[in-house]
Write a structure and sequence with these properties.
12 helices, 72% helix
């Protein structure tokens, strides 16, 4: 048996008539006749439950307006009456919350105004006290003004002295600017001079190399590539900056080794060694370790793999345990370690 659900309706037009009851089921079936059918009984129950739980005090006109909006929106959006009605009721309740919040805000404003009035009274009392203190302060201020006049005179004297100091400072600044300019010019001259020296030493080395005998200048591509690969990153960078090719420097180094292996010295060979040394110094190239060994001869990973005895020594040394990371070891070994390693070759 279906229960007749009811909702409170406020008649705003009749102050004497506070509330009356109407049948919600009757109004719902009026707008949604299809809900009278047995197959739509569940949907009708859900609509009635929504209206009951909404706790809204609605006039008959408001109730019919809500149901009419529900019907139109459901048809337009192709959604169920329940979904659309939920959305409409939610919007009404949010609006009611906003109104209630406005009332609370108004009450809060009244309380704040009363508090401000009390604060204003207290401030007025304080103001009276302050005015009395102000009178006293004004008298003291008069005394201070006299003292200030004396200080102003002293300040004027100090400002004159300051002006004189500023003039001296201006003169010093000009001199400083001139000195810095000269220093910059000298630095640029030194840079140009160093660059000129580098170019001259490179040119001298090339000319001296050309004066060597053919057998000292004869190098295979493999020898040149091996020598290039043995160069340290720092040396390669400096050569690139100088404009001297890695191939030329590799040939210079090979010629130096051949000259060192000769039993007799020649003027051309000695001249070449001297010019090569000057060139390396001007370029900042140091192809030797702190232990005095050529970087090109530094042990690499392959060296350890091909020399088991050296590998055994390295394994027992804490600083040489990660052999797979070893390329050039000049920055990883101290002088004593380097000496131990080379004694095993």
């Amino acid at each position: 048996m279906e229960t007749k659900q009811r909702v409170d309706i406020v008649n705003n037009k009749d102050p004497q008539q506070h509330t009356k009851k109407i049948s919600v089921v009757q109004v719902v079936e009026e707008f949604f006749p299809e809900l009278r059918e047995e197959k739509n009984k569940q949907e009708k129950s859900q609509i009635l439950e929504l209206l009951k739980n909404s706790q809204l005090k609605l006039s008959p006109r408001q109730l019919r307006s809500i149901l009419e909006d529900t019907k139109l929106a459901a048809q337009k959006e192709k959604k169920s009456y329940v979904v659309v009605l939920q959305k409409i009721i939610k919007g009404i309740r949010e609006n009611n919350d906003i109104k209630q919040n406005n009332i609370l805000q108004a009450q809060k404003f009244q309380n704040e105004r009363k508090n401000k009035e009390k604060e204003q009274t207290a401030l007025e009392k304080k103001q009276t006290t302050l005015e009395k203190k102000q009178t006293t302060l004004e008298k003291k201020q008069t005394t201070l003004d006299k003292k200030q006049t004396t200080l102003d005179k002293k300040q004027t004297t100090l400002e004159k002295e300051q002006t004189a100091l500023e003039k001296k400072q201006t003169t010093l600044d000009k001199k400083q600017t001139t000195l810095e300019k000269e220093k910059k010019e000298n630095r640029n001259k030194n840079i140009l001079k160093e660059e000129m020296i580098r170019r001259e030493t490179i040119k001298a080395a090339k000319e001296s190399y050309q004066n060597l005998s053919p057998d000292l200048k004869q190098h295979s591509p493999e020898e040149i590539n091996t020598k290039i690969n043995a160069l340290s990153p720092n040396t390669k960078a400096r050569l690139k900056k100088s404009g001297l090719s890695l191939s030329d420097y590799a040939q210079f180094s090979l010629a130096r080794e051949k000259i060192a292996s000769l039993d007799t010295k020649t003027p051309e060979g000695e001249a070449f060694l001297t010019t090569l040394k000057k060139m390396e110094k001007s370029l900042g190239i140091l192809e030797k370790t702190d232990g005095g060994y050529p970087l090109s001869n530094e042990p690499r990973k392959e060296t350890f793999e091909q020399n088991p005895q050296l590998m055994e020594f390295a394994k027992n040394d804490e600083s040489l345990k990660s052999l797979e990371k070893v390329n050039v070891l000049d920055d990883k070994l101290n002088i004593k370690q380097q000496q131990k390693i080379f004694q095993l070759f």
